[in-house]
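Board notes (copied after class):
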Amino acid sequence: MRIRDGRRWWVAVALLALPLAARADEAKAKPVDVKQMSCKDFRALPADQQPLVAAWVHGYSHLGSSNAWLLDPDKVKSFLADLDAACDATPGASFRYKLLEVAKTRKAAAAKK
């Protein structure tokens, strides 16, 4: 009798754990493909992922640059605000090209100072 009761307990635990395992899989973030992403797609990402994607694309575009290792939080915030404005103005534009356009514009403005 004791063995049978033990089995019931494990079956009950397993059945209770199934919904938890399903929720854990749902909580995992899916990889983001930025190659074909539009600004509209970028804006549709969860708010916590948008800065991560923008930083990744910006960093990827600066591979090999001497400034690739510098992080200025104020410039990042300003850059993200400019990127948001550019994407709001042209939601159908390619996100990665819009990001590079904003970076180029900011670089040209900094060179004039």
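Comment from the instructor: The chain is about 70% helix and 0% strand. The chain has a mean pLDDT of 79.
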